[in-house]
User: Fold these one by one.
Assistant:
Number 1:
Amino acid sequence: MSADKNSFYVNENALCESQDIGSNTRIWGFTHVMKGAKIGSHCNVGEHVFIENAAVIGNGCTIKNGVAVWNKVVLEDDVFIGPYAVFTNDLVPRSFMKRGEESFLKTVVKQGASIGANATLVCGVTVGEYAMVGAGAVVCKDVPAHSLVVGNPGRIIGKICFCGKLLDLKQWCSTCECFLYKNSKEFAISKITRLEEATGT
C-alpha cells in the first residue's frame, strides 16, 4: 500500500505523517493522518479529517469533511463516509481510567458500504457489503449486507442495490432492471453509465 509521496496528493495545509498511502489518493486541507495509518489508492480524504495511527482504509474510499477515523476502525474498499459521521472505539469511556487499546472494540465497514452524514457507529459493529446507513442514524448492532438502516436506534427498513437504489420486496432494482442475486457492482456501474449517456446527465 505504501507509495512515493509524488504519487499521492497532500494539501499544503494538511499534516500527513504516514508513509503508507496508496497512489492517486488525495488528502485535503486541515486533515491529520498519523504515522502508521494505512490508506489505499484512489481515495479522497476531505478537509478537517483525523485518521489515527492504527486505522486502516482500503482502496477507492471517500471520506467527507469532519470525520475522525480512530484506531481499530477498518474501512474496506469503495466505502463512502458522509460528512461528520462518527466512529467510536471505546464502549465504556472514562477520562480518569486509562484501559489501553487492548480494551477497544473493532469496527468494520465492509466493501462498498455507505455511511450517511452525521450517522454514529457505536464501536464493535460490522456494516455489511454495500449496505447503506442513513443520515443521522445510530448503529448499535451489525448491519447485514445490502441493508438500509435509519433512525435511532438504527433499524433495517429495506434492501439496497449495488447502485444505491431501494429494492422492492422481491429484491428487484428498477434502475438496474435486475434482481439482486443476479446483479454485481460492475453491472450496476455499466447500467448507470449507459443511462447517464442516454439522458445526457
Number 2:
Amino acid sequence: MKKLYQKNSNLFGQNLSRYRKLSGLTQDDLGQTVGVSRTYISALEHGRANPTLKLMSQLALALEIDVGNLLSTSEEHLNSEEEEHEIHKNAWYRK
C-alpha cells in the first residue's frame, strides 16, 4: 500500500511540475496564484506533501488544465503534442 501511495504522489508531482513549466510559471508564480509558498509547491512536485482536493482544483485552474491531468499516467495524456501546443500557446498569452 505504501508503494502505491508513493507512486501516486510522485505521479501527481511530476504532472504538476510538467504542466507548471509548460505554462511558463515559476514555482513562486504558481504558489502566489493559489495562495501557498514556493517551498510548498516544490514539496508537492517532489512528493513530499499532499494537496487537498481544493488545492488540486485551484492548481488545475491556475494551470488551465483539467484536474484529472494532474492524476493521469503518461500513457493517458502526457505525450499529446496537441495538448502541449495549447499549453504553450496559453502561456504565451499570459505574459
Number 3:
Amino acid sequence: MVSTLPSSWFLNFSDNKLNLDFIWRLGLVYYDTKWYAGASFILHSFNYHSEQVRLNNAFGSLNFYVGFNFKRKKAVQ
C-alpha cells in the first residue's frame, strides 16, 4: 500500500485544527452479599474552534444507587 501523505506532513502541523474531547469516569461501590450501594460520576468535555466559532462545553451526570439481592445463593457445605 502506498502512502499519499508527504514525508514532511508533521512539519506542517497546526494546532488551529486540533479539537479535544475528554470523558472522565469515577465509580464507587460497596457490596455485601445481601445489598449494595454506590455512586457513579461521568463528565464529558468538548473543545471545538474554527476561524468563525469557538466552543467549550462540559456536562456530566452523578448517579446514586442502592440495591438488594433477593435470591442469594446459599453456601455449599
